[in-house]
Amino acid sequence: MPYIRGDYSLVKVYIDGIEVEVPPSYTILQAVNKIGVKIPTLCYFGEIYREASCRLCLVELENGKLVPACAYPIQDNLKVYTNTPRVRMTRRVVLELILAIHRIRCQSCPRKGGFCELLKLCNEYGVEGIPVCAECPLMGNDCFLTKGIPCLGPLTVAGCNAQCIIEGNACMGCRGPVTRRDVVEEAFKLYLKYNIPMSEVLSRMKMFWSSSPFYDHLTSLFSQFSLKYQGERHG
Amino acid sequence: MSSWTLLDRCCNTCWHSIDYPCRNYIRCRIEGPLCHDVSECRDKRLRRLKEIKYGKYGFKIKVPMASCTIAAGSKEVYKAVIDEVKSRGIRADISITGCMGLCFIDPWIELIKEGMPPAIYANVKPEDIPKIINEYLNGSVSSAFALRHRTGKAKDEDKVPLLEEIPAWGKQVRWVSRNCGIVNPESLEEYIAYGGYRGLERALKMKPEEVIEEVKKAGLRGRGGAGFPTWLKWKICRDQVSDVKYVIANADEGDPGAFMNRLLAESDPFRIIEGLTIAAYAIGAKQGFIFVRVEKPLMAERLSKAVEEARKYGLLGDNILGKGFSFNIEVILSAGAFVCGEETAMIAAIEGRTSPRQRPPYPATKGLWGKPTIINNVETLAHVSLILAEGWKEFAKYGTEKSKGTKMFCVTGAVKYTGAYEVPIGTTIKTLVEEIAGGVKEGRKIKAVQIGGPSGGCIPADLLDIPIDYHTLQSAGAIMGSGGIVVIDDTSCMVDVARYFTAFTVVESCGKCIPCRVGMKILYDIMTRITEGKGTEEDLEILEKLGNIVKNASLCALGGTAPNPILSTLRYFKDEYLAHIRDKKCPAKVCRKLIEYVIDESKCIGCGTCYRICSASAITKTPQGKYRIDPKKCIRCGQCYSTCPVNAIYKR
Asked: Which residue in B489, B455, B451 sits closest to B472, CA to CA?
């Protein structure tokens, strides 16, 4: 039997209207990467993991179906749309769902320091729920909490690239609070750990958040946690 | 003489053996010997055929033995029949059979005597047996439920209806379930005597392409739910170049309220094996699997027994019917996960992995162990064996233009006659529910019909005129699914029903992809909130938006159909959702947090039954000697409501 050197015939695919010629063994993602269009991926890991379970790389086909780019094999004349409103909306909801089960512990996360793909995607798709603490290490900032200064970073919605902290000011919470219970609990534990008086944190929160409907919610959460962690104070 | 069966050789002229099988084996068994014209042999076979029908001594008693009838007590009935026959010395054959699908008459027995009308007795109790046998042997059928046909020789024959005259039976078209309740499911001989294996014999005389063409002409579509044309699946798989191919019978039926696959496999297992063999021949596979749910042990047992039996007589194994075609079947037990009904998850389960994978590549090109595989539903395969036996024209007679043939439906819920009914596709839901299943109980009203199990949707009562076929149901927001129909009457709350089905899919989700794992949980939490009266109108928007996203973005069909119950109830019963949210009232008075039990003091007789049964001590005695419920202490268990002898307690 002669040595088969592989099939070198190429097939045409159209990505957002751009014609690309790729080998027929490619997936949509590989074809898309060839022309430099970016599709967000989380679970995809090259040849090793392409099980399409995170559903972030969804793209729209011509027949209106949403398919994962990382696992969908291309066919001849396939028309792929990577950035339609429907695709963006679906990705956004998927991100929100991921975040809904994500244990947000940015301060103790091993990925802090620039690797948080989730944070980047959340910023790109406008999903809120990650605190500023995730962004601080990206900028190489020192943490104010370690110096005993009350900073609202652990409670404030990220997205500002930690501008105030770069400038040398502690976070004032101008972007509003993250109201998730686990985030607030994590923040509370941090304040306890660095011996920051709760009264100072609460007074800081008043500046931007006193008129927010979440302010009462936050203070009630704080009082709940202060009961819960009573014995651990300053310890 | 007694040990001789149809499957054995008639005399030494017959040279058939498993090593050198005869090509006309099946036809020879029922039409008398074909290779030699000896009247003695022919008489022998005819006599045996008659024996199968009427028993050795001209009297046969059939007792159904399927999971459903056993649950209704047919094992005790069987024992009672044996005791009675033994103690009275009656010469009779007692045989087991499958389930007819008429659940409301379980357990039933059928008495057949030559010259007498075959009589079916419904709801038999073990202590009735002597009376029934006595009556039948004395030539009377007055207490029978129905007769198969009339002979004019028994007393009171005209007073007992024929089976065809009962709408639950007469309006059906028994095509694929024709043998259910008639043949002995554990006997290959009876199956062949009632016309089995003719399809395989005919298929093996055709080319594989011709078999596919026959199925194409018949217009058979997958009966598992999605309705993909069977011939197309086969053709794609046939066209693949591969040395090894596989066929799998999907007997992993998991919908709540659907049991037609179990009924078929328990009552007529050989038909499925025959269909699977034909499918294997059509695509060129040598190995097949039957994937059975472990929660249906009898079904697995019957199928395994049938496989062994077929292998024993050379209908599985090497060189089947002398045509050089080899095929083997292995019965595989699933661990009982709902997601295993999905093709790729089933393949993963057979391989020993978990969770479905993204399609394409479809199993027909890359399936089990990377080889081309076709997966067909049990009912589809049963249809295949009949299409090949009877020809495509007989099959295509029934049904609509786009979806041909018949389909079995399990009608359960708030109907008078629950059961599995086979009707042509295109029959309206109304016919099925109101005429065949007898409609809802007196004084109630149909509110909706849930079709397709947890992946299907609810269709409201005013849309019941639509025909059941793949397209119409899809546009109405439901799917055919495997064919479970749950009838919901006005005592059920639609929000609660949707919440129940959502709870089912939340538990059964494999957890691989985000939308199904997280999205369904969030949907379930919102549904729970609404049934507790804590919902807001924003929640409805979230339900609709998130439901659609879960539907579109999920990996497999489980997630892709899981929000259907919510979306369809939102579409047709929005006012009920709004009543829960705005008025904090459950119109059907089902949702516990939104109702209150009150004692009507004018009706109360002061007996104290409710007082004694209340587990929360919420009932107190008033100075007038009546009772009163403290709504703060009441946990709404409904115990007092159901025990009150004068119905003085009502829900508010």
From this structure: B451
Q: Write the single-letter amino acid at B215.
A: V
> A25, A27, A50, A55: best mutation site toward chain B, by most B Cβ within 10 Å?
A55
Check CB contact of A148 with chain B, cutoff 8 Å: no
The answer to whether A66 contacts B555, with C-beta atoms less than 8 Å apart, is: no
SS3 of chain B: helix, strand, coil, percent, to 5 = 45, 15, 40
CA distance linking residue B318 with residue B18, whole number of Å: 9
Degrees, nearest 5: CA angle A143-A149-A152: 75
Taking only the tens place, the pLDDT of each residue in B52-70 is 888 888 889 999 999 989 9
Return the residue matching tokens 């008033």: B622
Residue A205's domain comprises: 105-230
Tell me the average pLDDT of chain B. Answer: 89
- The reply to whether A99 falls in a domain is no
The C-alpha atoms of residue B111 and residue B108 are separated, in whole angstroms, by: 10
Among chain B residues, the shortest Cα distance to A67 is held by B553
User: CA A156 to CA B476: how far, in whole Å?
Assistant: 46
Look at chain A and report how many structural domains it folds into. 2
Q: Which residues of B247-264 are buried (b: 16+ CB within 10 A; e: fewer)?
A: bbbbbbbbbebbbbbbbb
Residue B414: strand, helix, or coil: coil
Q: Which residue is listed with tokens 């729920």?
A: A129
Length of chain B: 652
Please judge whether A53 and B512 are an interchain contact, meaning their C-beta atoms are less than 8 angstroms apart.
yes
CB atoms B552 and A55 under 8 Å: no
Calpha distance B17→B208 (Å, rounded): 25
CB pairs A-B closer than 8 Å: 56
Contacts with B, A 28-57, CB within 8 Å:
51-55
Residue pair B462/B443 in contact by the 8 Å Cβ criterion: no
Of A89, A119, A141, the one marking the end of a domain is A89
pLDDT (tens digit per residue) in A56-81 = 999 999 988 999 998 898 888 899 99
Same domain, A122 and A197: yes
The share of chain A scoring above pLDDT 90, in percent, equals 15
Domain architecture of chain B: domains with CATH: 59-165 (3.40.30.10), 188-396 (3.40.50.11540), 406-492 (3.10.20.600), 495-582 (1.20.1440.230), 596-651 (3.30.70.20)
How many angstroms away from the CA of A84 is the closest CA of chain B?
A: 15
Residue of chain B minimizing CA distance to A25:
B361
Query: How many angstroms away from the CA of B546 is the closest CA of chain A?
Result: 8
